[in-house]
Amino acid sequence: MIRYFPLLFLSVLSINAQQDLPFAEEVKEVQQRVDSIWDSSKNTIVFTGSSSIRLWEDLQKRFPGHHVLNTGFGGSQSSDLEHYLDELILNYTPAKVFIYEGDNDISAKRKPKAIIGTLEDIVEDLHLKRPKMEIVLISAKPSISRWHLKRRYKRLNKQMSKLASNINGVEFADVWNIMLDKRKLKADLFIEDGLHMNVKGYDLWYEIIKNFMNKSNP
């Protein structure tokens, strides 16, 4: 019996490590909610990423012709999503996934190059496990509270667009420019915290995202 102790010990460590992952409890709650509405017989589209997705509560109403699942988890960075690709995307066998990550990464002082590296890994893993899945990378959005970081966000978006153009089955949805009035941010698109959007903000996102819902990626 003693000779099995190392294996048992490693198993316990693995379980504890999984439980200690950031957002583990929130991801479980997301799974429970989404599992209750997912219809595996329907062609599924998943929206996932940080709080700008999590708070988009009327996604299904805006796209009634599609079976839409929202697996967003607030406060996440791209590296967090990478940990939960199965739980938040792959388990639902979607034909298409919209990903919004990078906003919190920049705020946490991650460099655009590092964020793109993580997004590349995510895309590669998703296509490895589900080659025909269409992936739409949503640009980082501008916001009042993070406007001082706009140059970093613009660099990230430029690199994200380039990433999408270089990989088959991946597209880039630019929500940055539609939220600006020339070079100035439209301040009436946000709730009191200056970071998260109100209905007007999501109305603008809808105008961009709808163009990708029925479109097949090259």
UniProtKB/TrEMBL annotation:
UniProt GO MF annotations: phosphatidylcholine lysophospholipase activity
InterPro entries, per the entry: Ester_Hydrolysis_Enzymes, SGNH_hydro, SGNH_hydro_sf
Residue ranges annotated for the SGNH hydrolase-type esterase domain, each copy included: 54-204
Pfam families from the UniProt entry: Lipase_GDSL_2
Protein name: G-D-S-L family lipolytic protein
Organism listed in the record: Flagellimonas aquimarina
Organism placement in taxonomy: Bacteria, Pseudomonadati, Bacteroidota, Flavobacteriia, Flavobacteriales
